[in-house]
Every structure is written in structure tokens, then in C-alpha cells.
Design goal:
disordered N terminus; Aminopeptidase; Copper Amine Oxidase, Chain A, domain 1; 10 helices
Length: 346
């Protein structure tokens, strides 16, 4: 799962905003026995992890418990509990301070784990991938040399990528499964309603100069520079409803959103660099680099998101290569291998 730490500033905002909070903070030593996964497993408690919001959820005494990774806030039903230290991600585990058990689970008995179930011992960085094949239907995308149409090229690569990732054990969904038109708005809504950990949009490039060629990759340029916020705000509301956080304070909502976007920015750059470096090497194509952008599907998805331009179909040599199944398979394999590398990072 994506890895990040919420800023000290946000922690201070939370402490000041909640009544009765503040005072001296003490450094707490966190040990492996304090992992939420271990705590839940010992009590035979089933849990869920939402990589979008970085919220760890389980039920205790008939109430939903929500732990915000990177924060010292725990929500138990309608009650807000402040821990002595933040819940931290460490080696794919969620670590909590020792007072978590006393404050949250004091009356919850330890029960033996009954065989195998849905309790997992650790979090994988990526479990589900959402692939967005650009354009489709009435929207052909770029028109290239040799009668090449962008929507067809990127759909083929996307299907090959899905097949490769599924063989590796990932759950994969696509925004379109055929030559159909899907609006940009709908693509971001699909991402919001999914449980995907990564959104990757596949495109092909075109330029007035037929000499231009190579690979390019894009990620969000940051909230402070974005305009036209209506779609993202609608997606945020959908997310908060899904997490049952819409009835809690505005402070809680802001914290979840700030954590989410901090995570998205860091992880999008991380995966983008891996994909373009590996793909450029494997297919022997110029690496034109990664850069921030305001592309609709990149800025309005709430999870780590990148848009990958797999070559210029206006360039004769790249168009010829992209017209072959072998080259498209190499691109799909390179992206899949990059995702595996990213997913296996601690």
C-alpha cells in the first residue's frame, strides 16, 4: 500500500481543533507487538484497509473503529479518541502506541484465531489496479501514420497489461472493456467507487513535427495550482460517504483529504519514475521524462494516478513499432514489472 507520513502541521491542527486536547507530548516507543494486524488477529477481528484514505477499519463492541494512518486520531462510533502517538506505517504494518489497547480495546477479550479467514498478516502496497484505456467509441484520440488510431493502440496495450497483472495475482479492472466512449468525469467516478490502489491511464502521442518521438508520463501538479474543483469535490464527498466519515467533524474530513492528497502526490511521482525508466530501457525508446500536469483524470482521481504516453504515432519509426503486437506486449510487460517493483517497496 502507498506509504507516507502526514505533516507535523496537520497533527498540530488536529490537536488544537479537538476540545480538551493539547499539553505535553511524550515520545512513545512502538514495538512490533503493537501492529494493528497482530492486535486484530489475536482477537479474531476482521479488518479492512482503504488505501485511498489510509484508514484501517474494524468493528468492536458493535461500533466501527477507524484508525487514520499518520494521525493520532481514532474514531470509535461517534467518539473521537486521541492516542499518545501517531499510528505509523512500518514495513507494511500499521503500528499503534501502547495506549491504543487501553483506550480502544480495554473490554475486548482476546480470542483464539479460528483457522483461516479474511484476516491478513500484512498489507501489500498494491492489491488492485485500475487501468484506463484512453479515448474510445466516438472519441478516436490522435490519428497517426499508416492509418493508426490512438484508441485502438492503447486499448490493446491496456488489455495486455491487465492480463499480465492478473497472472501475477493482482485484481485489475478497466474503465472500458470495449470500444466505447466513457466521459472523463465517469472515469474518475469509477476510480472513486473502486478499491483500486493505483490508476494508470494509457495514451499515445502526436505532434506537428514527425521527428518528435519518445515516452512521456504525467502526474498531478498539486492542489494549490488546480482549478475547476467541482468534480474532485464530488469525488471527495463520495469517498467520505463510503468511509462513513461524512457525519463526523469537518476537521476529520480535512485530515482524511489532506492525507489522501499528500499520499497521492508522493506515490504518483514514485510510480511514474519507475514506469518510464523501465519501459524506456526495455523497448529502447527515448525517455522524455515525467512532469506535473492538469489532465482531468490525473487531477480528479483521489488515488495515486499517472497518465502514460507510450509513443508518438505521428513519428514513422514509433508508429511502425506500435503497430506490432510484439512491441505493444513489451510495453505492457515493462509497465507490469514497474508496478511489481513499486508494490514490493517497503
Amino acid at each position: 500500500m502507498p506509504r507516507f507520513k502526514i505533516s507535523i502541521f496537520l497533527s498540530l491542527v488536529l490537536l488544537l481543533a479537538l476540545p480538551g486536547c493539547g499539553g505535553n507530548r511524550h515520545r512513545v516507543v512502538i514495538t512490533p507487538e503493537n501492529s494493528l494486524q497482530d492486535i486484530c488477529q489475536k482477537r479474531n477481528i476482521e479488518w479492512q484497509w482503504d488505501s485511498i484514505s489510509q484508514v484501517f477499519t474494524f468493528n468492536v463492541r458493535g461500533k466501527a473503529v477507524k484508525v487514520l494512518a499518520g494521525s493520532n486520531l481514532v474514531i470509535v462510533g461517534d467518539q473521537r479518541i486521541i492516542l499518545s502517538a501517531t499510528a505509523e506505517r512500518k514495513d507494511n504494518m500499521i503500528m499503534v502506541p501502547p495506549d491504543f489497547i487501553d483506550k480502544v480495546l480495554a473490554s475486548e477479550p482476546v480470542q483464539p484465531v479460528l483457522g483461516t479467514g479474511t484476516v491478513f498478516s500484512s498489507l501489500g502496497k498494491c492489491r488492485e489496479i485500475l487501468i484506463d484505456a484512453g479515448h474510445g467509441g466516438k472519441d478516436p484520440g490522435a490519428l497517426g501514420l499508416f492509418g493508426m488510431i490512438e484508441k485502438n493502440i492503447v486499448f490493446d496495450i491496456s488489455k495486455r497489461l491487465r492480463g499480465g497483472l492478473e497472472k501475477m495475482g493482482y485484481k485489475v479492472t478497466m474503465t472500458r472493456d470495449s470500444d466505447e466512449f466513457i466521459s472523463l468525469q465517469r472515469r474518475t467516478e469509477i476510480a472513486t467507487n473502486s478499491k483500486a490502489d493505483l490508476f494508470i491511464s494509457i495514451h499515445a502521442n502526436s505532434a506537428p513535427s514527425r521527428k518528435t518521438k519518445g515516452l512521456e508520463i504525467y502526474y498531478s501538479r498539486g492542489l494549490e495550482r488546480e482549478s475547476d474543483l467541482s468534480q474532485r469535490q464530488a469525488n471527495e464527498r463520495t469517498l467520505l460517504r463510503r468511509l462513513s466519515l461524512n457525519d463526523h467533524s469537518a476537521v476529520t474530513g480535512r485530515i482524511v483529504k489532506d492525507m489522501m492528497y499528500s499520499n497521492k502526490q508522493i506515490e504518483s511521482v514514485n510510480i511514474a519514475q519507475k514506469i518510464i525508466a523501465r519501459t524506456s530501457k526495455m523497448v529502447d525508446a527515448p525517455n522524455r521524462g515525467g512532469r506535473p500536469s492538469g489532465f482531468f483524470v490525473v487531477k480528479n482521481t483521489l488515488i495515486p494516478a499517472i497518465l502514460f504516453e507510450v509513443g508518438y504515432i505521428s513519428n514513422a519509426s514509433e508508429a511502425k513499432l506500435l503497430g506490432t503486437e510484439e512491441y505493444r506486449q513489451k510495453i505492457a510487460d515493462a509497465i507490469a514489472e514497474s508496478i511489481v517493483e513499486y508494490s514490493n517497496e517497503s
